[in-house]
Amino acid sequence: MQIALFQPDIPQNTGTILRLCACLGVAAHIIEPAGFPTSDRHFRRAGMDYLDHVVLTRHDSWPKFEQWRNEAGSRLVLFTTKAAGSYLDFRYRSDDVLLFGRESAGVTDEVVSAADARVTIPIRPGLRSLNVAMAAAMALGEAMRQTGHPIAGEIGSKEKV
Fold first, then answer.
1. Which residues on neighbouring strands pair with residue 85, listed in sequence order?
2. What does residue 102 show for φ and ψ, rounded to 5 degrees?
3. Within a 10 A sphere around the Cβ of 76, how many other Cβ atoms?
4. pLDDT in single tens digits along all 161 residues of the chain
5. How many whole angstroms separate alpha carbon 142 and alpha carbon 160?
6. Residue 120 in 3-state DSSP?
7. What is the distance between the alpha carbons of residues 78 and 98, in angstroms, rounded to a whole number?
8. 62-71: buried (b, 16+ CB within 10 Å) or exposed (e) per residue?
9. Residue 76 and residue 122: Cα distance in Å, rounded?
10. What angle separates helix 132-147 from helix 11-24, to the nearest 10 degrees?
11. Number of Cβ atoms within 10 Å of the Cβ of 22
12. Using CA atoms, how far apart are residues 156 and 106, in angstroms rounded to an integer?
């Protein structure tokens, strides 16, 4: 199980999601361009000292991420407010990559087309969306519950690809 963030633009949310990944032993991917540098103080504060404990791969672009994903043979599960099926009804696999879009704009049509599955977290009518870090935590929790994903041991950081 892995999490990917498409061009994240709020450093606090990204830091929080990376902390989640560190604590649960889940690898993370940032698909550039991000809307902030990784030296941003809000990003560092939200991630705290957990950032050194996550396997993080930064991809220079969507095509580079897709190249990696196709080589890895991973299924891409897009979380979006525009999907019909609930994330609770979806059947996850241990090799899935859970993808979350940019907080301000979601993902591009190209990304939507590339997704193997699109799911939503149902919310009350009239409300737009959940905070992306909260959505990632809910999604990852359900996916790990279904797959029996173990908490990984010792992990470290990776470079940009």
1. none
2. -60, 135
3. 19
4. 999 999 999 988 999 999 999 999 999 999 999 887 777 676 667 666 788 888 999 999 999 999 999 999 999 999 999 988 999 999 999 999 999 999 988 999 999 999 999 999 999 999 988 999 999 999 999 999 999 987 755 444 455 54
5. 29
6. strand
7. 6
8. bebbbebbee
9. 20
10. 20
11. 22
12. 28
Residue with tokens 């590339």: 114
Scan for tokens 């990559």, then name that residue. 97
What stretch of H or E contains 147? helix 132-147
The total number of residues written for the chain in this structure? 161
User: What are the chain's domains?
Assistant: 2-147 (3.40.1280.10)
